[in-house]
From TrEMBL:
This is Acyl-coenzyme A thioesterase 13. Its main location: cytoplasm. The lineage of its organism: Eukaryota, Viridiplantae, Streptophyta, Embryophyta, Tracheophyta. It comes from Turnera subulata. Homotetramer. Interacts with PCTP. The keyword Transmembrane does not apply. It comes from the Eukaryota. Signal peptide: none annotated.
Length: 155
C-alpha cells in the first residue's frame, strides 16, 4: 500500500502546473466524449433502430490487447440510449444493463453496433444492442438495456 501511495503521490508544484480549463458545453467535447465515444460513426437512424460503426482505438485496449469490457459496456449504454431518445426531451438514464461478452475485439477491428428499441411503457424503454465484428460477422457482445426518462405528454 505504501508503494502505491508513493507512485501516485503528486507534489504541490505538479498540481500548480496543471491547467484545467472549464468545459464549454456545446462548443467542445468533454473529456468523456473525447476519450470514450470519439470515433463512433452513425450509419443509419430509423424509428426504433440505430446502427453505428466503430474502429477499435489504442486508448480502449486492455492489457490483453483486446477492447476493454468497460468500453464495450459504454458502447452498449451510449448506442442503446440513443435509440430510446425522444427529440426535445432529456436523455433517458440507464436503469439496468445486462451484457453477454461472447468474443473479443482487437486493435483496429471495425465493429458494427446495432441497437433496436424493444418497446416503451410510460417513461421506460427497453433496447437490444448487438456488437459485431464487421469483417467476420462474429458477435462480440449482446446487451439488454432498460432506461427511464420523461415521456411526452398525452395532452
Amino acid at each position: 500500500m505504501e508503494k502505491a501511495r508513493e507512485v501516485l503521490e503528486v507534489s504541490d508544484e505538479e498540481v500548480a502546473r496543471l491547467k484545467i480549463h472549464p468545459h464549454r458545453v456545446g462548443v467542445e467535447c468533454s473529456f468523456y466524449e473525447d476519450f470514450a465515444v470519439r470515433g463512433i460513426r452513425v450509419d443509419l437512424v430509423e424509428p426504433g433502430l440505430v446502427s453505428c460503426t466503430f474502429k477499435v482505438p489504442p486508448r480502449l485496449i486492455d492489457s490483453n490487447g483486446e477492447l476493454a469490457k468497460g468500453a464495450i459496456a459504454n458502447l452498449v449504454d451510449e448506442v442503446g440510449g440513443a435509440v430510446a431518445h425522444i427529440q426535445g426531451l432529456p436523455m433517458h438514464v440507464s436503469v439496468d444493463m445486462s451484457i453477454s461478452f461472447l468474443s473479443s475485439a482487437k486493435l483496429n477491428d471495425e465493429l458494427e453496433i446495432t441497437s433496436k428499441l424493444l418497446g416503451r411503457k410510460g417513461g421506460y424503454a427497453g433496447t437490444l444492442v448487438l456488437v459485431k465484428n464487421k469483417a467476420t460477422g462474429e458477435l462480440i457482445a449482446e446487451g439488454r438495456h432498460s432506461l427511464f426518462g420523461k415521456h411526452a405528454s398525452k395532452m
